[in-house]
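Exam review. A common question shows you a sequence with its structure tokens and asks you to describe the fold in words. Practice with the pair below. Do the first one on your own.
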Amino acid sequence: MIMNYIPDWGIVSKAMPLLLSGMRTSIVLTLLVVCIGLSLGIPVALARMSGIYIIRYLAQAYIEIFRCTPLLLQLFWVFYALPMVFGIKLPGFLAAVLTIGLNLIAYMAEAYRSGFQSIPEEQIEAANVLQLSRFDQVIHIIFPQAFRQQLPSILSLLVGAFKDTVLVSTIGVADLMFQANTASQQYYRPFEIFTVTALFYFIIAFPVTLVVNALERHMLMQRDNV
């Protein structure tokens, strides 16, 4: 049977306040998660490369736990299981920031580690000759080069983090997806509401993917010219 459905795009204007409110929440959540991932991924990557076995093992265990389990399950565990086991009840937004942040740290740590290990050993030896501390080596030599080399991967992870925020609606956080679902039930127009919602996500994510592709082509050209 062919459905004679006639879209009513005018309903989108009525739903727009809800969608924009959810969009703000999604953007704020993403910015907080990105700050956590970008900053704390560095010490976790260094711990993963540590010469001390127990530190390296704990860092690896943390990374594998968060990379090898579904993010949705992690959200449910923090929001629902944590209060039952440890009596720690977190608001939905805070639970979302914590969970997605911890998840992104694990992926960022591996991206950083890959960049760190690509630094020529001669540069590290030269830094040791100059008696630079390990901290100075990381800040002035290792991190800038590693970050530049891994920038396409890092940006891809950040786009993924933004798209992952769609899951927080399952724990009651009023993000874009949550508000879109609310609007679709309120106005009985899921086709129009969810189509515009998908467009919102696309408008944010697509420009970043273009930057990632341009960076990858530029880096490939640089390698070919060497």
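Now try the second one, then compare your answer with the model answer below.
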Amino acid sequence: MTPGRSSGRPARSGGRGGGAPGRRGAPASGQRSVARKADRTSGTRRESDAAAPDLSGLGAFRLGAAPGATPGKWIDVWKQRMPANPVDLVTLEFVDQAAALASGEVDAALVRLPIERAGLSIIPLYDEITVAVCSADSSLTVADELTLADLAGEVVMVTGDDALGIEVPGAIAPAFSAIATTDDAVATAATGVGIVLVPMSLARLHHRKDTTYRPVVDAPTSTVALAWPTEATTPLVETFIGIVRGRTANSSR
């Protein structure tokens, strides 16, 4: 040990007054790195904001929706991001959804598959289970869930706006005239003369106190998808696609 030097105490660096001459108060290297990173981040945000297109001149976004489809969460995001472009929500019956897209009545739509796909771009979104709607006092209600085999011998109504196309082995065809709409079929099921198979959201949409429903666990599901004309993929359509896919406001397409 050299006389006159203390031991056991590390040399001080970066402390007050410990900087090089002429650089008193200069930020340490770590602080400079943070400052540069903040500048880059701020610059990126400014560039992203500047790159965001102004779509206010394109007017309203016309969104079709099949009965029972639930676009509410996406519309809420749209309203936050696109206040200058209101959403016109158009209810589309299953039999009309393809024509509405082809004619330009709507810019895009939440549709039920199947749909004629020619000229359309389609993104499947979610599947709905199928339920059997019956009268509240039907013997089918003793079970929490049903199978197609459980429906053998039941009068099964198929409506003019049916979106499922399910054939039930052993089912009985109605002796009365064909029923045009799901709403009318549910009202008929309330009388106890038959049942109707629908996606669960439609059973909820047309709920009555004198009817109930049970899931049919082995029946095909109903797929809800976003569809739009491929050749009419406008900036508004692209924006809605981004919202549906969960992109942030500044995400690149």
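Model answer, second protein: Residues 1-26, 33-52 have pLDDT under 50 and may be disordered. Strands lie at 61-65, 87-91, 108-112, 120-128, 130-135, 156-157, 195-199, 211-215, 222-229. Full marks require stating both points clearly.
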